[in-house]
Write a structure and sequence with these properties.
Order of helices and strands: HHHHEHEEHEHEHEHEH
Distance between the termini: 23 Å
Structural class: alpha/beta
Largest sheet: 5 strands, parallel
Number of helices: 10
CATH architecture of the largest domain: 3-Layer(aba) Sandwich
CATH class of the largest domain: Alpha Beta
Strand content: 5-15%
Number of strands: 7
Length: 204
């Protein structure tokens, strides 16, 4: 299957320090892959040094008990939605579940969002962090409405914390460097501890 060969070729290139974007483009063009398979490669394949580094930072969800946590809002929400649908996710070579839809900039807040948020908050209530901060990218349509919805539902679940929007969400998340819920490799590389919550919600 071409995606399997493409994954092998991409890892070979990344392990030899090829630029990630250049390597992905080479492989995608060689195997004439679809946009969805391109997204899959981007979220699945990592060089060995990054796989080891990411795995060292992954904590079990129980580690959030009594701790402050920060949630990469859209990243986690989109992945949980995909996981609940049982499709469009991939378990990366680093052991972290990611979505492969590539819909970030086109994301729409709807009934599926509400369901996914409910599942996320149920898990947070189970693991009992001392404080939870959701950070949503403000450039996405209806981010303010989404943050307000999350704040309301957090209160209903008895969870302490907040949900905010920011034009520089990734930067703020990295700066806070709390226990972080995200599958974004750039964020993972810049924080000390990461929890993969979507994999605990997945119906698979």
């Amino acid at each position: 299957m071409s995606i399997d060969k493409a994954s092998q070729d991409l890892k070979y290139l990344l392990d030899r320090n090829y630029n990630r974007t250049t390597a992905i483009n080479l492989v995608v063009n060689r195997y004439e892959l679809s946009e969805k398979n391109c997204n899959l490669l981007h979220r699945y394949v990592f060089p060995e040094k990054e796989i080891r580094a990411h795995r060292k930072k992954i904590c079990p969800p129980r580690r959030m008990r009594g701790k402050k946590i920060v949630i990469d809002g859209y990243n986690v929400l989109i992945t949980v939605e995909a996981a609940l649908e049982g499709k469009d996710t991939v378990l990366g070579m680093d052991g972290i579940l990611r979505d492969v839809k590539g819909i970030f900039s086109k994301y729409k807040f709807d009934k599926n969002s509400e369901k996914a948020i409910g599942k996320i908050l149920e898990k947070l209530k189970e693991f009992k962090p001392s404080s939870t901060l959701f950070i949503f990218d403000s450039q996405i349509s209806k981010s303010g409405e989404l943050a307000a919805f999350v704040r309301e539902r957090m209160e209903e679940h008895g969870l302490t914390g907040d949900a905010i929007t920011s034009p520089h969400a990734d930067k703020e998340i990295k700066k806070l460097n709390c226990i972080t819920l995200s599958s974004d490799s750039i964020i993972i590389e810049n924080v000390d501890r990461v929890i993969d919550l979507p994999s605990k919600i997945s119906r698979l």
